[in-house]
Every structure is written in C-alpha cells, then in structure tokens.
Amino acid sequence: SVLSLAASVTLTAAGMWIATLRNEFDYHLVGGAVLGGGIAAMHYIGMAAFEVQGRIEWNLLLVAVSLLAGVTLAALALRVVQRRPSLKATSGGAVLLTLAICTLHFIGMGAVSIFPDPSIVISEYTIEPTSQAFAAAAATLVILVLSASALWIDLRFRRQKLEVDRMHGLANAAVEGLIVCDGHRIISANDSMATLTGIATATLNGMQLGDLFGSDMSGFGEQPQEAELSGRDGTSIPVELIARSIDYCGKPHNVVAVRDIRERKKAEQEILRLAHFDPLTGLANRRSFSGRLETEIAAMGRTRKGGQLALLLLDLDRFKEVNDLYGHGAGDAMLQKVAHCVTGILRQGQMVARLGGDEFAIIAPNLTDPLEAGRIANAVLTAMREENRLSVGGGLVSASIGIALYPSDAENQASLISHADTALYRAKTEGKDTYRYFEASMGAEARDKRVMEHELRQAVARQEFYLVYQPQKEISSGKMVGFEALVRWRHPTRGDVSPSIFIPVAEDSGAIGQIGEWVLTAACEEAARWENPLTVAVNVSAVQLHNTNFSRKVHETLLNSGLAPGRLELEITETALVKDMPRALATLRQVKALGVRVAMDDFGTGYSSLSNLRAFPFDKIKIDGSFIKSVDKNGQVAAIVRAVLGLGRGLGLPVLAEGVETLGELKFLDAEACEIGQGYYIGKPALIEEFGDLTGVVAPAVGSKPASLRDRSVLAFAPAPALATR
User: Residue 443 to residues 323, 420, 423, 439, 446: CA-CA distances in angstroms?
Assistant: First the structure.
C-alpha cells in the first residue's frame, strides 16, 4: 500500500508537470497518459498487496479496458483544464478526473475473480481489518485536511492574483505613468510609464527611484513636485510627481503618478513669448517696450554719463485706408514689411517694438549727439520710401515719426512717451512722411487732441458711448413718426464730451468709421424692441459711405437685429458724396435695394445740392437748422426755406426741418406745409427710456448710458403744442 501511494503520487505529479510544460495537445496527451498510469499503479499495486484465503485470477481484457479508460479520461481532463483555464474548465476537468479514477477502479475490480482455497495461508504481516479501517479513516481525514488547506491557499493566491491583475489593468488604462514602490524600489510599473521612459516594464521593476529621477526623492509626497525624468536615451523629461500610500498585496506601498508636463512647459513658454512679443511681426510688444524703457531710464540715472536716450514713436500714414480698401491681410503684410525695414536699420542696443495697430516705438539709448535720433528717423523713412519704389503692386504707406529725448525733454517715462506722442502729432499735421523733435512750444491743445484720438479708438470697446434720441413729428398733426439716434461720449475723466468736439477729431483720425458702425448696430437693436413701429434715423459718415462693405454691414445689422428695413433711415451729408461720387452712388443703390430709406442731411450747406438730388435716389430732404433759425422773422431766410419746400414738393420728396426751437418757427413751417419737424421745441434729445409711452418699451435700452448715468437729470421731452390742421 505504501508503494502504491508513492507510485501514484510520483506518476500523478509527473503527468501534471508534463501537461503544464506547453499548452499543446501532445503534452496534454503524454501528461494524461502518465497521470492515468499513476491511477492504475495505485490500484493494481494496491491489489497486489491484497491477501485472501483463496486463489485470485484476473481478466486481462478488463484490465486493459480499465487502463485505457483511465488514461483517456485523465488526458481529456488535463486537456480541458490547460487549454483555456477558467472556473468552468476547472470544474469540467475535476469531473473527468473523477470519472477516470472511478472507471479504472470499478472496471479493475470487475476484472478480478477470487476462488476460495483453504490450503492458502495468509501472511502474518497482513494488517487486521479493524486496523485497516482505522488507517483508511485516518488517511481519508488527512487527505481532506490537506485538500481543504490546498483549496484555501489556492483561493488566497487567486484573490491576490485577481487583485494584482485588476490593479495592472487599471494602471495600464491610465494615461499617466504609474509605479508602485516598496520604499524607493520599484516593484511594478504600467505601460504608460514604460512608454514615457522608453524602458521595458520588466526592466523598470527592481530599479530605484533615484535611477529615474536622479535628485533626492526623500521629500516627495502627496503635494505635486516637479522633477526631471531620465529617459533610456539620456534625454531629460520634465515631469510632475504625486505619491499616495496604498495597501498592495496586503502590505503598505507607495504608488507614484508620473505626469509628462512637456506640453505644459511648451505652452508656458509660448504664453510667456506672447506676453512679451507681437505675434504678427515678432517684435517686442508694448509690455516689453515699457519694461525696456524703464530699465534704460533707470540705468541712465545710475551712470549719469551725460548721454541722451531717444524715444521715437512711429505711426503709419493712411494705414486705415489700406485696411478698408485692400483688406486686413494686406494691412498685416504691410506691418510685417515695416518691422523688417526698421529692424534692419537699428544698431546693437537699440530696440523696436510694436505698440499696437500701426504704432511702433524705437528706443535708442546712450546717444552722445541728439541729432543721431533724427538720423535714425530719416533712415527709417528713407528705407520705407525705397521699399515703396522697389515694390510691385503696392509697397508701404509713408510714416510720421515723433522724437523726444531723456533727460532733455522729460523727467520720467510717462512724460517722455507723452512728449514723443506730441511730436508725432506735429509731424502728422505738417505733411506726414516726416519726423519732428519735441519742442516745449508745442501746445497742450495739440497734445490733448492726439490723446483724444487714442481714447476714441478705445471708447467703443470700453462702452463709453451711448445714444440719445430726438423725436421727429408731423408738423400738421403732431403725430410721432420717428427718432434720430445721436451719439454721446461719457469719458471716464473728461465727463460728457460735446459731439462738436469729438466728432471732428474722430473724422480726422479715422475712428469715425468704428463709431458709426456701433451707432448703426445699437440704434437698430433698440428700434427692433419698440412695439410702436417708428422709424429710426442714423447719420452715416463719409468713411462709412465709401467703404465697399457698407451695404453688407447694413444688411447684416438688419438681419441680426430683426429690424424691418423700411424703419431704418440713413442720413447722408452732401459733403460725404463729393469725395467719390461713383462709389457713393453705387453704395446708395445697394442700400436702397435692401428697402432702407435714404435722406439728404444738412441740405443747403454742402456742394451742388440740386445735382445731388437729381443723381441720388433720396427719400427725404433735411433742411439744416441754420436756415430755420428766426425763419419767422427774417424774410431772406424765409424765402430760402420756401424755395426748398417747393423743390421738395416738385420732386415728390418730403422735407424735414431741423433746429425748430420756437413756436413761431413751428407755425411758419406749418403754414408753408413742411411735413416733418425736429428740434428742441418739438422734443429734446434724451435717453430712449424717457419715451416709453411712445415706443411702448420701458426696459433698459440698447446702447443707453449705464445706470449711474441715468441718475443725471436729462433734458425733458417737450410735446408739440396742438396746432390746427391745415
């Protein structure tokens, strides 16, 4: 029996070992045969130890069948388990192995026949039946205990393996590199970490953190810490480390997340570059310019060598016209050419910056001769003229340059910039394409006007403009027909700036186009809110009228606001027409095709009024207020007004009289059958909220003043007196 047990254990272990060498059928077949042989050895060696007072005979055919059945079922059991390990396969293999054991034993027992023979003597070494029973029970108990222990150990290892597999799966799903450490020794790493370092996972396992990160890692923890990761090829990769304590396989470990921050570092560098350099030209921007100028002024204050620092401010002449006529792409190309021209002239230590738009600045420190600044300016202008001469299809526009010196002209950075700006304005007003030094005699008025130009360019973005509305009424009935939208400017320090002051400055600087677009948009959006479908009149500047995109802008504004085209009236002055008659005519026809009404504003104050009325498809004539003043008392003025009213009737055009300020003027116009009136006597300009009873809207208006401004007293609306119907 001991021999049968030893043979069984040896052959069974050998068979299972062979089956696990390779996951192939041949190995499973051989392993199963050896395992079946172990089962047969246990049975037949055990039967050989069986003694009974009789003769034992064997049926060799059944013995062969039992061996074949045992080997076949054992091989099949190993094949099932090893081919695709799973709980189902393991269960199936156990059933097949049980069948192999039972089949061999039962068929083997059927192969034996015992014939009683009293002459046979049983050996004295035979174990008593009672002892055999106890031995079998003890062996069975030991087997059960060992089996239970093996099962418990197997389940524990399975749980640990599942935990490890789950953690590996989660770790490999992570984008960041993950490493599990026992102290500073790496015991596991995910695929992302292997990809990041270029080192295989098997190689990473067992390495020290210091091998990867070089620096002292004793202080890293749950707070993010930047480090340099050493890759396989020796490259240094900036990373961010975050550590956490975890329970891994029943023991405390640290898991370290390794985040690749190369892209973040690149983004930070790009942000830093954008913060200090102009992306279009590659020149230093206003921020860098300000810092450099401050540094140079401070350095001159420390050395006190007696030299001069020159600040040259450069502004392109008529640059806005380039954008309007040829598009912003051409304007950008021109700015790049200017940057190239200026950069090629400057010497070491000198700096050029783009301050914004078409404004550039040059810092030239340590000049021993103030005239050197003029030579720099002249070289810039000469280079631009040469670029114009060589360019085919359009070169550069000209430039104006203002020069101020430190410390001769200014005591600090702010005054130096201000004085250079004043000199620049003088250069522009004295013919452009030239340069001027700052002089103390340059008046405050010129500086203030130049400052106002800069402020006007920013006023729309800063929401400093607002609209007031002046009523327009039928003179005969007093019926409300519409409003004229008038722009106002509330400056944060100047307060309310009169339109008579800022409108001319805006026209000279070109800012009137941007302001006009804002007025058109705000007025249309506001009028679209009115329940009462009154018209809204908007003034159009010459810059807007001669812009090839003006009709498209009007169309887009109407679509976006939802205002009916027939409710919008554009007022055009005669002066705006004469700049480019063919273009103005084409633009007006496009606008008329949209259904928008067009009125001639300030009739009688411009050029060739009669020819303009014949050439352009106007819908209304507006008599300038200068002709209405004292019309009831001045016979000559009255004759002119009667002539204009007669002209309007002859052309079939309604006439609107501006500047009606007295009852006498209103009665005269009523008597002369003037259709519409506008002026302080009919209604003073006010915020649209003041006319809620006429528009049917009491909500805050589009383009109106902020709440803090509405607290001011506003000119009240004066209703027209009741007049007898003619």
Answer: 32, 13, 11, 9, 6
Lowest mean pLDDT among 192-201, 288-297, 442-451, 701-710: 701-710
Residue type for position 446: A
Count, residues in the chain: 726
For the chain, give every domain's residue range. 2-126, 174-265, 282-442, 458-710
Closest residue by Cα to residue 714 from 690, 695, 692: 690
Query: Of the segments 207-221, 254-268, 365-379, which one has the largest average pLDDT value?
Result: 365-379
| Residue 208: strand pairing partners | 185
pLDDT at 723 over 70: no
Instruction: From 218, 385, 363, 390, select the one nearest 299 (Cα to Cα).
Output: 363
Check residue 719 and report its DSSP letter. P
Helix ranges restricted to H, 562-706:
574-578, 581-593, 609-615, 625-628, 635-651, 663-671, 692-695
Cβ of 664: how many Cβ atoms within 10 Å?
14
Rounded alpha-carbon distances, angstroms, from residue 245 to 180, 248, 254, 260, 704:
10, 9, 5, 21, 61
Q: What percentage of residues in the chain have a pLDDT greater than 70?
A: 82
* Residue whose token pair is 């027939």: 566
Q: Could you give the CA distance from residue 253 to residue 249 in angstroms, rounded to a whole number?
A: 9
Distance, in Å, from the CA atom of 694 to the CA atom of 676, rounded to the nearest integer, reads: 17
* pLDDT for the residue numbered 717: 31
According to CATH, the topology of domain 282-442 is Alpha-Beta Plaits (3.30.70)
Please tell me the predicted confidence (pLDDT) of residue 482.
96
Q: Are 254 and 180 in contact (CB under 8 A)?
A: yes
Homologous superfamily in CATH for domain 174-265 = PAS domain (3.30.450.20)
The widest CA-to-CA distance across the chain, in whole angstroms, is 172
Residue 563: CA atoms inside 13 Å, Cβ hemisphere, count? 31
d(CA 278, CA 343): 14
Q: Are 159 and 168 spatial neighbours (Cβ–Cβ below 8 Å)? A: no
What is the CA angle 110-116-120, rounded to 5? 115
User: What's the one-letter identity of residue 53?
Assistant: Q
Whether this prediction's pTM lies above 0.85 is answered by: no
Contacts of 279 (CB under 8 A, 6+ apart): none
Strand ranges (DSSP E) for 75-125?
A: 112-116
CB environment 493-502: b (16+ within 10 A), e (fewer): eeeebeeeeb
Highest mean pLDDT among 44-53, 436-445, 531-540: 531-540
**pLDDT at position 714:** 31
Strand, helix or coil for residue 301: helix
ω into 504 cis (within 30 of 0): no
Q: What is the pLDDT of residues 19-38, one digit of tens each?
A: 777 777 777 778 778 877 77
> Which H, E and C letters describe 464-515, residue by residue?
CEEEEEEEEEECCCCCEEEEEEEEEEEECCCEEECHHHHHHHHHHHCCHHHH
Q: What is the per-residue burial (b if ≥16 Cβ within 10 Å, else e) of 621-641?
A: bbbbbebbbebbeeeebbeeb
Phi then psi for residue 238, to 5 deg, are -70, 130
CB-side neighbour CA atoms (13 Å) of 228: 7
Torsional class of 435: left (φ above 0), alpha (ψ -120 to 50), beta (otherwise) = beta
Contact 698, 683 (CB under 8 A): no
| CATH code of domain 458-710 | 3.20.20.450
Q: What is the mean pLDDT of the segment spanning 35-56?
A: 73
The pLDDT tens digits of the residues spanning 579-618 come to 667 788 888 899 999 999 999 888 866 554 566 677 777 8
CA 584 to chain centre: 41
| Pairing of the two strands 185-189 and 177-182 | antiparallel
